[in-house]
Amino acid sequence: MIRRCLLASGLLLLAFVSSAQDEALLRGRKLFDSHCARCHNMGGTGGEGPSLARPTLRYAADEEALVKVIQEGIEGTDMPGAWQISGNEVRQIAAYVRSLGRVESTPLPGDRERGRDVFEGASGCGSCHIIEGQGGILGPDLSDVGLRRGADYLRESLVSPDAAIPERYLLVRAQTRAGEEVVGVRVNEDSFTIQLRDQAGRIHSLSKLELEDLEKAFGESLMPSYGSELSASELENLIAYLASLRGEP
Amino acid sequence: MAQVSYERIKNAAGEPASWLTYSGNYASHRFSALDEIDASNVSRLRPMWLYQTSSGGELETSPIVADGLMYVTEPPATVTALDVKTGRPVWNWSRPMPKDLRTRGFPRTNRGLAVLGENVYVGTLDNHVVALDAASGAVRWDVQIAENSLGYCITAAPLAIDGKILVGVSGGEAGVRGFLDALDADTGERLWRFWTIPGPGEAGHETWSGDAWKTGGGATWLTGSYDPELDLLYWGVGNPAPDWNGDVRPGDNLYTCSLIALDAKTGRLKWHFQFTPHDVHDWDANQIPILVDAEVDGRTRKLVVMANRNAFYYVLDREVGTFLLASQYSKQTWAKEIDERGRPVVLPGTEPTEEGTLVWPSLQGATNWFSPSYSPKTRLLYVAVREMGSYYYKAEAEYKPGDYFMGGGERALDGDEAAGAIRAIDITTGKTVWDFRQHSPPWAGVLATAGGLVFAGAEEGNFFALDAATGEPRWHFQTGGGVRANPIAFEIEGRQHIAVAAGKAILVFGL
C-alpha cells in the first residue's frame, strides 16, 4: 500500500515536472515568436536569419553557449544581443530553440547537384554572385548563404527579389547638378555624402549638397525575378543547392 | 595655477575663453559668446590637434577648459589633463575597475567632470567621487557614495557650486532607488542626500504601492542646472523600475520622470513637475534643464525649459514650478495632448505588450543624454532629435539585487525608417523654426555660438556647423569615428577653438 502510494505520488511528480517543462517550452515559444521569429521565422525554420531547427547550431554548441548568444548577440553578424530579456526568459527561449533541433526536419525536395548546374548555367547567377571566390560582385557573396538564410527566404529572394533585399544592397539613383546620372548600390551614406557602386563595380562618391535628385529605391532589387525564368523543379534544385552552401569548398 | 573660484563659474558666460562647467554655465546654455568663427569663415575651420585615448571605449565626455589645461574623462575611469595649446598630456589619473563591475542598461562610460578651486572632481562607475589636484592629478580625497553590487554607477559629470559638489547616480535599469548627493568640496563629506523616490511618511510616497518604492528607479544620471539667485538646483529624474512592466508599481510613481527643484543649502524639495506619470516606455526626464528669462503672457518670468525624451517641449516657471506650455517637437504616437495642468492625455493601446506595441518615440526617446544648446542671440533652443519608433515588449519582472530589472524590452525601427535632426525651437512658443535632417538618429550634443553657428555631430562621424538662424549647413568634417559627445568652445592664445570627442579621440578645431 505504502509502495503503491509512493509509486502514485512519483507518477504525479513526473506529470508535474513534465507539465512544468511544457509550460516553460510554451513560454519560450511565445517569447521566441515575439523577439526572434522576425528573422528566424515561426518555428525557427529560418528566414532572413538562419534556420534553428537543426541538431547543432554553428555558434552555440550547448545550452550555455546558446544563452550567451541570445544575451550578447554574435559580433560581425546581424544577430543582436537581447539585453532587455530577463535571464529566466532567455533560458526559456534557449530551451525552446534546443527543442526545435530535436524535431526531425523535413529535407528540401530539390537536388543540390542539379541546382548547381542551374546556378552555373543559363540563369547567369554567377555573373552577379560569388561562390568560393568565383563570380561577380554586384550581389551578395553566397559562399555560406545556407548558413545565414532559411529556405523560405531563399525562395522569396529568387521569386520576388524586391521583397527580400538585404540592407546593404539598396538601389540608389542620383542626379548631379551637372546633369550626370549615377545608378548603383549604396555602399555607405552619411548626412552629407553617399557612396555608390555601379554595375561595373566602380565606386562613386557624391556630395549630397551637389545633387539635384537622390532617389532611394526601397523595395526595388537589381536582381530579376526567376519565378517564371525557371521551371518549378529547377527552382527547387537551386534552393537545395544554395541551402547546402556552408562556406566549405 | 589660478583658482577656478565659484565666482568665475557663476560668471562663466562672461569668460568664454574657458569652459568651466559641464553645460558651459549654471543655466546650462551650452552657448559660447565667442564670435571669431562665423558663417563667413567656418569653411576654413580645420583640426589643430587630436588626442587619441588608449584606455578603450567610445568617448562621451564633455571637456572642461581652464587656465591652459583641458580636462577630459576616458572610459572606464580615467581623467587626463591636456596642454590646451598642443594636446600633449600633462597628467593622467585612473582608477582600476573591479572585475565584477555591473553596468545595467548603459555602456562603461563617463560623461565628464567638474572643476572648483584647485581641484577637479570626477565620479566613477564603482561610485567613488574623487577630488584631484587640478595641476598634478594627485588625489585630494576619495569617497564612495553607493554600492555597485546593487547596480549603482556614476556616469555623469558632477556639478560644482559654492563649496558643494553635486553628484547623481545611474542604475535605474537595475531597480536602484535614485538619489542626489551634495558633498563638501573640501572634504568629500556628505552634506545632504535627496532620495528621488519618497519613503514611508514622505510626500509622494502615496504614488507607490507596497514595497515597489524600494526598487523604484528614478536615477539622477545627468548633470543638472543651478540658479545662484534663487539658490535652487534643477535636476532631471529617471524612469521608474521596472521599465516596461508597470503592473508591479501602480500609481504616478513620483518623482520619476520629473524635474525637481531643490534648495541647494538643505537639499529640500521646493517643487517638482512630472512629465510622464507612471511611465512604461523608459522616457526618463534626465535631459538638461535650461534656465532662461523671457516674456510669457505679457510679463518677464524666470523659466526652466526642457526638450523631454517623451517628444514634448516644456516651459515651466522655475521659481514655483508652474506649468506654462508644452508642444510636440518630434513624432509621437502615445499622447493625444498635454492638458492645461501639464499632464499627458495618454492614448489607449500604447502600453507595452507581450506581442509588442509600436510607439513613437523609441525607447531612446525623441532626445536623450546629449545636450541641447540655447542661444541668447537667436532665442532659439537647438535640440538633437531622434525620429524613430519601437516595438515595446512587456515581460515578467523579477528583482534580483544588481541585475536587470526591466520587465520587457524593445525592437527599434532602425535603418532608413529612422532619421535624425537638429531642430531649432522658439523657447517661448515651442514652435519649430527650422529643421536640419540627419541620416540617422544622433547621439551627439549641440553647441551654439555668438558667431551665428550651431555645431553638432553624427553617428557616421560627421562633425558639422549649421547657420543658427536658418539651419543651412556651413561646414562639415569627417572625424572617422561616431560623434557621441557634446561640443565646447574656448580660446587658445586669444583665438576661438571648438573641441569635440569622436570615436576614441578628442579633436580641436580652429581657423
Describe the structure.
The complex is a heterodimer of chains A (249) and B (511). The mean pLDDT of chain A is 86. With 249 residues, chain A is α+β, with helices and mostly antiparallel strands. Chain A has helices at 2-35, 37-40, 63-72, 87-102, 112-120, 145-148, 151-159, 232-243; strands at residues 130-131, 134-135, 171-176, 181-189, 193-197, 203-207, 211-217. In chain A, the strands form two sheets. In chain A, strands 6-5-4-3-7 form a five-stranded antiparallel beta sheet, with no helix packed on it. Chain A has eight helices and seven strands; from the N terminus they run αααααββααβββββα. Helices cover 39% and strands 14% of the residues of chain A. In chain A, strand 3 (171-176) and strand 4 (181-189) form a beta hairpin. By secondary structure, chain B is mostly beta strands. Chain B is built from one helix and 38 strands. Chain B has one helix at residues 6-10; strands spanning 31-32, 46-52, 64-66, 69-74, 78-83, 89-94, 114-116, 119-123, 128-133, 139-144, 159-161, 164-168, 179-184, 190-195, 225-227, 232-236, 258-263, 269-274, 290-296, 299-307, 312-317, 323-328, 335-338, 344-346, 357-359, 373-375, 380-387, 390-394, 408-412, 419-426, 432-438, 447-449, 453-457, 462-467, 473-478, 488-492, 495-502, 505-510. In chain B, the strands form ten sheets. Chain B has a five-stranded mixed beta sheet, with no helix packed on it. In chain B, strands 2-38-37-36 form a four-stranded antiparallel beta sheet, with no helix packed on it. Chain B has a four-stranded antiparallel beta sheet with strand order 3-4-5-6, with no helix packed on it. The longest helix of chain B has 5 residues, at 6-10. Chain A binds chain B through residues 30-31, 34-35, 38, 82-89, 167, 170, 189-192, 209, 216, 218, and chain B through 105, 354-356, 393, 395-398, 403-404, 406, 408-411, 415-416, 420, 437-439, 458, 460-462, 464, 473, 476, 478.
